[in-house]
Amino acid sequence: MENEEVSLKSFDHHSRKHSEYFELYDKHFKNLREKKLNILEIGVQYGGSVEMWAKYFPNAHITGIDIDPVCKIHAGKRVSIKIGDQTDRAFLSQFKNYDIIIDDGGHTMRQQQTSFEVLFPLLNPGGIYVIEDLHTSYWPAFFDKKPTTMEYLATMTHTLNAGASKSDRAEGRPPIESKEISEMHFYPSMCFLYKQVAEQQFGREQYPEGDVRFKIHQLVQRVQRKIFGG
User: Fold this and answer.
1) Strands 61-66 and 190-195
2) Is 18 helix (H, G, I), strand (E, B) or coil?
3) Is 107 a known active-site residue?
4) Gap between the Cα atoms of 47 and 212, Å rounded
5) Does residue 181 have a pLDDT over 70?
6) How big is the CA angle at 38 (ends 36 and 44), to the nearest 5 degrees?
7) Which is more confident, 32 or 218?
């Protein structure tokens, strides 16, 4: 069967994900199904989601993170379970070289933002980072820090388009360099963030100083600094 004909929903039995999410995952993941990937999901709970991903991606290894030690029972062939807190930066720092990271954890502002700040830089170039259940940015019970995650991501759109200037960082904008993000896709309660591949980094890393393209890059940076400060 062709990848395009396979729906993620057909592999779901008890993941407890919102029904609207399946079509979005198919849209972004269908061309990756047969690849050998390392996939990390925050939030295991009853194990339905890691089981679903293992079936949808037949050649991938799935790692699930949860704070509840009981979740270890969901480990199996091509599925590993790690126990820890998604706000523990030291714990998260071990999860390197993943191709897809999905945050379906506790959904508080601190949990979502801490996980992103630690894990997105560790994501493989060209990888995809997904945050689910962003509607908690409008539920006061989940406000354990400011800004809300939706506000945090909104500033990321400025970082993506204008670059991370000194003034951006002074104002508390997300500490993710603009060159690390290539795309952001927003949907109801979800955001997909794509990480740059090395060839997309338009600057000194790719072009030597004598190259006219590097001079153009320098000019763009000077204009950005005049407009946005830094």
Assistant:
1) unpaired
2) coil
3) yes
4) 53
5) yes
6) 130
7) 32
CB contact at 8 A, 228 and 162: yes
Beta-strand ranges (E) seen in the chain are 38-42, 61-66, 79-83, 98-103, 123-131, 181-187, 190-195
pLDDT digits (tens, 9 = 90+) for 116-131: 999 999 999 999 999 9
- Ordered by start, the domain boundaries in the chain are 3-196, 202-230
What does the block give as tokens for 137? 């940015």
Taking the C-alpha atoms of 215, 154, 122 and 97 in order, what is their torsion angle to the nearest 10 degrees?
-100
Question: Phi/psi at 73 (nearest 5 deg)?
Answer: -65, -15
- The pTM score is 0.78
Q: What is the mean pLDDT of residues 185-201?
A: 84
Q: Which of 61, 107, 185, 217 is catalytic?
A: 107
Residue pair 136/111 in contact by the 8 Å Cβ criterion: no
pLDDT in tens, 33-60: 999 999 999 999 887 889 999 999 999 9
Topology at the third CATH level for domain 3-196: Rossmann fold (3.40.50)
Average pLDDT over residues 155-174: 61
Asked if residues 163 and 144 have their Cβ atoms less than 8 Å apart, the reply is no
